[in-house]
Design a protein that fits this description.
Structural class: alpha+beta
CATH class: Alpha Beta
Oligomer: single chain
Number of strands: 3
Radius of gyration: 15 Å
Order of helices and strands: HHHHEEE
CATH architecture: Roll
Shape: globular
Strand content: 25-35%
Number of domains: 1
Low-confidence stretches: none
CATH topology: Nuclear Transport Factor 2, Chain: A
Helix content: 25-40%
Largest sheet: 3 strands, antiparallel
Length: 135
């Protein structure tokens, strides 16, 4: 998958859906610094310095979960231009507070048709990797 075809064209093939899912997983596993970047530095805001999501989330708090979903939606808008629109970002954690499941519903353009996709991924907050036997 070339950079130009992925990020500079409006049309996707069905094989690009897998690439979007992989990109979302990489974003969730990447840790971004918490330092605010001012609006006056748009290139820095779009750089790999800000790629990823903060991982110091206290997930037991419902308000914090909403903040996490809003942050992830903002990061998807910023770093995944192949998504036309993100309709829903939801998350749920396991009883132990380790594994967090994310479900993202969005619209993408494949060929000449807009299609809905659903991306699901999980990660561990302790080591940022879900163990195979815990799936």
């Amino acid at each position: 998958m070339s950079f130009a075809r992925t990020f500079l064209t409006e049309h996707l093939s069905s094989s690009d859906q897998d690439g979007i899912g992989l990109h979302v997983e990489q974003m969730l596993e990447a840790v971004a610094p918490e330092w605010p970047v001012p609006d006056s530095l748009p290139h820095v805001r779009a750089s790999n310095l800000c790629f990823g999501v903060p991982m110091n989330w206290a997930l037991n708090d419902a308000d914090r979960q909403q903040q996490v979903c809003r942050t992830l939606r903002r990061k998807l808008d910023q770093f995944e231009p192949r998504l036309l629109s993100v309709q829903q970002v939801s998350m749920q954690e396991d009883e132990a507070g380790n594994i967090v499941s994310f479900v993202i519903r969005a619209e993408v353009r494949i060929g000449d048709t807009d299609e809905g996709i659903e991306l699901q991924t999980r990660l561990s907050l302790f080591d940022q990797q879900v163990e195979g036997d815990s799936l």
